[in-house]
Amino acid sequence: MNLINKAKDKIKRHHERHTKLGYKFILSDGIAFVNQRDWDKIANDNTVFLSRNYLQAIESNSPDNTSQRYAMAYNEEGKPVVIVSCQVAEISGENLMPQSKDDTIKVKVARSYQERVLVCGNLVSSGLHGVGFASDLDAGMGWKIVAEILYRVRQSEKLAGKIDFVMIKDIKGNKLAASEILERFSYRRIQTDPDMVLDLGDEVTTFDDYLAILTGKYRNRLKKIIKTLDKAEIICEKLHLDEMMDKKLHQLYLAVETKSATRLATLPLGYFLALQNQLGNNFSCYGIKQDNELLGFVTTIKDKKEAVGYYVGIDYQANSQYPIYFRLLQLVVQSAIDMNCNRVLFGRTALGPKANLGAKPIDTFVWARHRVPLVNFIVRKLFRNMPFDTAPQRSATQKLDK
Fold this sequence. Notes:
Layout: H1 2-17, E1 24-28, H2 36-43, H3 52-60, E2 66-74, E3 80-92, H4 93-96, H5 105-111, E4 114-120, E5 131-133, H6 139-156, E6 165-172, H7 176-179, E7 188-199, H8 207-213, H9 216-231, E8 234-238, H10 243-257, H11 271-279, E9 283-290, E10 293-303, E11 306-314, H12 316-321, H13 324-338, E12 343-347, H14 351-356, E13 360-370, H15 373-384
Parallel strand pairs: 4-6, 11-12
Antiparallel strand pairs: 1-2, 2-3, 3-4, 3-5, 6-13, 7-12, 7-13, 8-9, 9-10, 10-11
Helix pairs in contact: 3-11, 9-13
């Protein structure tokens, strides 16, 4: 009976995947072509990363291997219910491997790998930044609509080249349960590194307030870092970007990017300046200088009451002498306080240093689907046991650990 039920369910899922939901859809290659009023109505209730200002910044300054796609779904009454922002990415073996002069046959074959991938969300940000639902839409139905939208976008791309692989990123917390309906559309859930999140609460309105909630051990570590830089006459200041400063930021960003094991999308020169111009007070950039030389920077984006730690750039020679990177992480907290945010999203790297600041891990997942059933089966088996980093346990804050 179990085998019979599985067979029946497989047939039912196949029927669901190939049956229209009854909604009307609009697909667009540019954010300027969507109905602005309808898009904003949903985007404003979701995330700044779906705002037309942010999307215009990335669309005008896309990584060389990505291009933007947008979609909207309307119900029978003509009301917008779902918006989707995607990227079509050309992923090669070069993107998936550390930079190396190794010329072995194995490496050459790996570098020759090429795939067009449809990413629901954003390869240059971490979070659920590709999907927005109307406030009164059932989330389960919303994810069904997303599945149909991604199918339609993939089909529309055939003239430019087939897309076999689709990925929805990044889902966490209370949004995960409703998204599990995607399994019925052959998507496979993959756990990734956790997002490190610091809850400040509404009581923390100054950096001294933040210091007060740290336990003595971690407060002293933080103060020691600040004193070390002060002693070396290294200053921290909020930056206003112009073209010259943007070039300096981009150079330091590339220093970090080239060290990454995977480089799925590299930001072009001009992106940070565009973010500042498009997001205004929702964008912050702090720099660390010595003798007026920029040694590092960190950017932060305000998303309602959350501060999203964005990109950093580092002079690695200076970082080998002074705790530049650790100070940059502290400046993300400072930016959150400046922006009147009560939560800091640090992202998924350097879990230990972020835990030292009081951040806690939040499990994060992506949904992935390959067009070819056999490959999709392999993807499911392969990723089921894929390792991901586990954040260390820290008791860095007094208030948050009670």
